[in-house]
Amino acid sequence: MIWISFAPIADRTYEFYQLHSMFMVNLLSLVYLAASIPFGFVATWLLDTLGLRAAILLGAWLNVLGIGLRLISSLEGDKSYNFAIALTGQSLSACAQPFILFAPTKLAALWFKDSQRATANMIASMSNPLGILIANLISPVLVPAKGNLAKDFLWMQIVYLIPAVVGTFMSTFGVCSSVPPTPPTPSAAEESESFIRGLKQIARNKAYWVLCLCFGAGLGLFTALTTLMEQILCPRGYDDHFAGLCGALLIGCGIVGAAIAGLFVDKTKKFEEVAKCCYAFAALSGIFFMLVSRIRHQKALVAISTSLFGMFGFALYPICLELAVETTFPVAEGTSAGFLIISGQIQGIIFIVLMPLLAKNLPSTELIYSSCTTGDPSIPHDPPQDFTVSNLGFCAVAVLAAVTLILFFKTQYKRLQSEQQTAEERILNFSARHRTTVNN
User: How many angstroms separate the CA atoms of 408 and 398, rounded?
Assistant: First the structure.
């Protein structure tokens, strides 16, 4: 929730902090991606060395401290320091994100049977987009276009602080162990490769690099779209509430798609086939959105296109994380899944920076239709931007990544094969012992 809480109300954030460029608003989201790169390496090492509990505790406490600073930035006082305090708080919460974001694959591998792993990964992974959905819905409601901006902003920060405090309490007193008393699968009982050795194995795995680059492109495009949704839509006359609704549809339908894909893959083990099909349809849906978002008065089509993009795009998330583990086993789960997410964060930064740079000022004939405003005429505002060129670049990257994954990604399911081999060896050993007992 914290990462994207300012994006649906970009205009009001611009006004509240008295900023001089819309890039400063985007910076509140960009800092999450930037922090995830160095702290992603730390989170990967921590998960695979000290375990789930240490990572969850550190992430929870850093997050609540960051949100506390955001709340302080909304109090009455010297406005010149408020944005710096907000950015500092956002940065602290951003540092916390990898410790939680990288945990689902490790959690699924250590605590669940092979027939439940993809579903468990899906449920844990979708908590992040669920928070994004909630933020897209409640930020425009808590900070409406008309109202007492200072009071509304303060209440918004309080609302976001409450679940962070509850989560920290639950993490501190509810998470008691990193592993269950009895491993649910043979692979969970095996010792993973050391962090450095795992890195060396990943570096030589061509299939993993194809998956890493393609998954990262998809995650980066989703991050850019979520961050820039309001800025893409408002020049065509779509207000903050509709942009927030589109963001919510993106996530809501994505959770449904991920649930269906997770259950299907748990039953069939067709990780690769599902990933390729979902990526192809996600790319087509992204193109559909970028085309209809340029047209005024097409709320239904814009909403449908974002829903389809979310449904197919989010189905990829838990499937690809599980696929990464299958491709690199016995490399530790935190390492193989973590680098996929880091790839997405790096590419997300690139897309979020480039898309506004490629955008052009909206033609004067179109300005009368724009809904981009701060609500206060006395506060200067960046001119509305035409994202047509940016959208074309978005479509090109989506198609390139989809084609690359479909044509060049092929892998063996190493973890499943290892578990099957272990099960067969146990059966053979049991049969041998039984024959020995009978003969004696």
Answer: 15
